[in-house]
Specification:
This protein is mostly helical and about 170 residues long. It is built from nine helices and two strands. The protein has a two-stranded antiparallel ribbon with strand order 1-2. Strand 1 and strand 2 form a beta hairpin. The radius of gyration is 18 Å and the shape is elongated.
């Protein structure tokens, strides 16, 4: 079924821990079709399991994701971030899908990256927070928010002991 590739691509974009219902939504499939296709992907040894879905091997996942053109990968990660955010996923999980997007001056992306950075700081990972905030600065944020994002990034990087904090 040609829709199997779309489901596999959505699962590859979602990554480990991705849910079949999210992949189905991204691929434009109903639940029954997604279950049927996931079972078929297990039979042909693309997926090791359909519940929960995960790839047989990381190389297989990478190969499936590589079938997406750059613009398709960008759109898929943006769709995954929006879907996960709408369902209340952890901010870090949402932010992970946004780090590789093309810079577009999207304030929604900046806000999600800042939320992910706050969660990383709360979790004791200032270096990760700094990386997310550097990505938010590259988006770039609206002019009215730039100084606040710079301060957050400098604090996170200083907390991580990084010398780059003074360069911000």
């Amino acid at each position: 079924d040609p829709a199997a590739l779309g489901l596999a691509q959505a699962l590859a974009v979602l990554g480990d821990g991705g849910q079949l219902r999210h992949a189905a939504a991204m691929a434009g499939l109903d639940a029954d079709s997604a279950i049927r296709l996931a079972s078929a992907l297990v039979r042909i040894e693309v997926l090791a399991s359909s519940d929960p879905p995960f790839f047989l091997h990381p190389i297989v996942r990478a190969a499936v994701e590589a079938t997406l053109a750059s613009d398709e990968r960008h759109a898929a990660h943006r769709a995954a971030a929006r879907l996960l955010h709408a369902e209340g996923a952890a901010p870090g999980q949402v932010a992970a899908h946004l780090t590789g997007l093309h810079h577009a001056g999207d304030s929604w992306v900046v806000n999600r990256l800042r939320e992910g950075a706050r969660a990383a700081l709360d979790g004791g990972a200032p270096a990760s927070a700094g990386a997310l905030l550097r990505r938010a600065l590259a988006e770039p944020p609206p002019a009215t928010e730039r100084v606040a994002v710079l301060r957050e990034a400098a604090r996170a990087e200083a907390g991580a002991g990084l010398e780059t904090a003074v360069a911000l």
